[in-house]
């Protein structure tokens, strides 16, 4: 082999191409991208009530090594008249632009209706409407292998059978749309918390997918009430403690999972707790496929967990503890 060929090959190995997922501990490691779900005004005004994530700051996080982004949006803004109704085409275009910016870079985009199992404030009770919503939406992305469908953000305070049935309806709709290559992230009741998963969401093991690409998305914060509203973590071991039972559940049931939201404040206890949790998950990659920080996005300002480059609190303060997984 000629020297320059060798050098070229060595350089290619040493410097992975921008945007292409590097071999890493986890299959996926990344951040949420907030903005399009912000605000309570419906539909609200772009630029005042809500905003879309910024592809240029996402590119910065991809350069850092992130390989997955969860893109939040609000169902009422996408389909204003009814779950089965037509799109606000501009909102769909803006959402698609962000998703494509991520997937064009060769990494995964999670499409996340950030609706807590509700539409217009009411618990979604029609599984058939929900199935149609997903059949329509998955149809928009069925040729994008790097899109991932997240059935809904944080079902909570709902009938447990209904949560199972809504997830199954979403899976059925997505596959009926001809979207057969994509992963589907399912979420459970009780804000899909890992710490309560086994007690609350055991029936979720009954979900079925003809393509066998279900990933159980759980969320876990490390403050006392697990809500992710305080920058104080309970202890340095709380991360491991809160995901241990869920890990065993995944193993016992032959399932795989992703921590779709987690965070801790920029302080020593939380750094230890987050590092410990990730290390534990990294020890269990047979069931844990990744973790997605909460959250980046253009409007977080000085929010305690902001991963937004260049000066978000977590971007400047916590990225170093995520480094082993990037
Ligand atoms: C979509 O984004 C453009 C800016 O790129 C903005 O002007 C427009 O108002 C947005 N529309 C919606 C519905 O989000
Ligand atoms: C799961 O499915 C099995 C077989 O269909 C059924 O017997 C069982 O009751 C279901 N379990 C739950 C928790 O829904
Ligand atoms: C991960 O595994 C290593 C090697 O077995 C072990 O030393 C370490 O304590 C484990 N970490 C956690 C947090 O479980
Ligand atoms: C912990 C945290 O920040 N949770 C947020 C999840 O997303 C919704 C919508 O953006 C916020 O209202 C929560 O505060």
Automatic annotation (TrEMBL):
Residues 1-16 form the signal peptide. Its main location: secreted. It comes from the Eukaryota. One of its GO terms (molecular function) is cellulase activity. It is an enzyme of class 3 (hydrolase). It is found in: Secreted. It catalyses: Endohydrolysis of (1->4)-beta-D-glucosidic linkages in cellulose, lichenin and cereal beta-D-glucans. InterPro entries: GH, Glyco_hydro_5. Residues 33-296 form the Glycoside hydrolase family domain. Gene3D superfamilies: Glycosidases. Keywords: Carbohydrate metabolism, Cellulose degradation, Glycoprotein, Glycosidase, Hydrolase, Polysaccharide degradation, Secreted, Signal. One of its GO terms (biological process) is cellulose catabolic process. GO terms for cellular component: extracellular region. Pfam families: Cellulase. Its EC number is 3.2.1.4. Belongs to the glycosyl hydrolase 5 (cellulase A) family. Has endoglucanase activity on substrates containing beta-1,4 glycosidic bonds, like in carboxymethylcellulose (CMC), hydroxyethylcellulose (HEC) and beta-glucan. Involved in the degradation of complex natural cellulosic substrates. This is cellulase. The lineage of its organism: Eukaryota, Fungi, Dikarya, Ascomycota, Pezizomycotina.
